[in-house]
Amino acid sequence: MATTLVLKSSILGEHSQSNQLINHVLESKTGIIERDLAANPVPVLDMDVATALRGSPDDLSDEQKAVLNLSNTLIEELKTADQILIGAPMYNFMVPTQLKNWFDLIARAGVTFSYTENGPVGLIENKKAIIVTTRGGLHKDSPRNSIESYLTTMLGFIGITDVEFVYAEALNMGDDAATQAREQARAQLTELV
Questions:
Q1: CA atoms within 13 A on the CB side of 54
Q2: Which parts of the sequence bind FMN (predicted)?
Q3: Structural domain containing residue 149
């Protein structure tokens, strides 16, 4: 049975367009590992967190050991999954802070990537990522679409290069546009998942 890691990052909970799209497609699915990064946020990268992720477990405070254990859990969830379904609404032209924090905790040298003489090499292989990105306006084919380049770069950095984007745009541009965008995104997402 295929396992899907679902990462939700919208701060809007049940009112979130990205969460609603994800929930719709997962209604009949099994083998789901779900992590709501807004409802249960992971720590923000600071000096203590960076030390926890790079230090020796013997030299860490109890708080830092908890961060390292959480990072290990997040990475194990990622390694266990066959595919990753990420909800990435656009907030001020970028992913939510909650999703960025997740990447900060799983991007670990020697664990999810390694440095080589030819540059970094991702260690998480044979995974597919599906990104559900929702936006109030139209940004897909414009320079404002920084989410696609950021997520493609971050996922590729850890070894995930099979990445598909599902867009639901124009959600604040009238009921007809929003309904059409949701229907198209739902159909595409159902086909991919």
A1: 10
A2: 10, 16-18, 90-93, 134-137
A3: 6-192
